[in-house]
Amino acid sequence: MFNLSKLDKNTLRIALPLIASNITIPLVGFVDNMMMGQFGSAIYLGAIGLGSIIISYILFSFGFIKSITTGLVSQHSGSNDYKNLIISTYQVLFISMVISFVLLFFRQEIIYFSLHIMNASNEVKQSTKLYLDYRIWSIPAIFIRDILIGYYIGIQKIRLAMWISIVVNLINIIFDYYLVYFLNYGIEGIAIASLIAEYSIIFFVFFAFRNNEIFTSKMIQWTKIFRWSSIKDKVFINIDMFMRSLILMTVFLYFMSIGASYGNLTLAANTILINFFFIFSYGIDGFAHASEVLVGYAVGKKDKNLIKNSIKSTGKLSLILTFIYLLIFVIFDDNFINIISQNTDIINLASYFTYYLYMIFLFSFFAFWLDGVFIGAMKTKLLRNIMIFSGTSFFILETSFFGGNNDGLWLSFLIFFGLRSLFLSICLYKYLKDNKFLEN
Hints:
Layout: H1 6-37, H2 42-61, H3 64-78, H4 82-105, H5 107-116, H6 122-135, H7 139-154, H8 158-182, H9 187-198, H10 201-211, H11 213-217, H12 222-225, H13 228-261, H14 264-301, H15 304-340, H16 344-352, H17 354-376, H18 380-400, H19 406-433
Helix pairs in contact: 1-2, 1-8, 1-14, 1-15, 2-6, 2-13, 2-14, 3-4, 3-7, 3-14, 4-7, 5-6, 6-9, 7-8, 7-10, 8-9, 13-14, 13-18, 13-19, 14-15, 14-16, 14-17, 15-17, 17-19, 18-19
């Protein structure tokens, strides 16, 4: 039986609600796959897989917005600097809305280019475009959702963050079922359901402004929010994290594209397994967010012992959760695959490649956890540089050494996560040894 310290219990208080809410995100993808999988065609599963990875490429390239908000808010909260807490939150919102405008303005070019570089059949591409034409309009709402959730996580109002995510994703699942099964909308129904669900965040924004004492009790001049000397630091932080996230999602996009070149069956099998990976990653991300909050708060208070203990607590509990995930998937993987598809060829192919997935679980948990640690400390250049090296290594390995089949693709993917975990662990050791977490 594990002995839980007071800090461990606080870590669980933060992480468990986030794990519960995070898991609902890939569950939406699971339901999407299940809906399309019932039609018995690899084309529908492949289209959902490509559409999801393309929209995820766009969104997750800017997915750092939530983490940056959490890191900044937790540091300001730790130093009791509520004035700059509000300014930072509004500045991140402003930056994200500018990004949204640019992405929507060039939406047709983005969709065309994304489909052009994917090695999928014409049938899959046509269905994918139909999905993306609707789905891309959800970008501004998703950014607002991430900022609001990041803010609540940063001030440790975890239950509010949890309920936002759960409610939005439940709305998505309900509309999935209604539009596909009752109105027979097909793949466009999946996209419209997501669009409706994401814009439900508007109701939570109204709630936040009416009920949050920090926003209602502090008067901030708008000129301070738009002052370049203040906003430029957030821009540079965002550029570092954008590069990191862009490389990460390029790896995922390339993985799906090369898998698609091996045929619709391989694409469908990889889609199922990547969704399982997302279920794992979103769950373990709960402890990454806990790391962001606790480390950021400790850095704000300039408490070296609290920094070390927060890292130790979140790391230990992340490892325990990883083994729980691994045990569940090893026992029930065939059941999960059979729920999604009734196509025997897809089932057999997905089952064959599951051992790569389980190795990735073990190799990647360090990367997820330590991302949270270094984001909480705002060490964004470090994260950027390690991602550049790991991503470059992935492409070199896949194209020059292991390319040509799906085994080589998965092996390169596994090494990518292994390198990230290795170098982040080395940096953690050096930062703790030299007390570098409090350096600017």
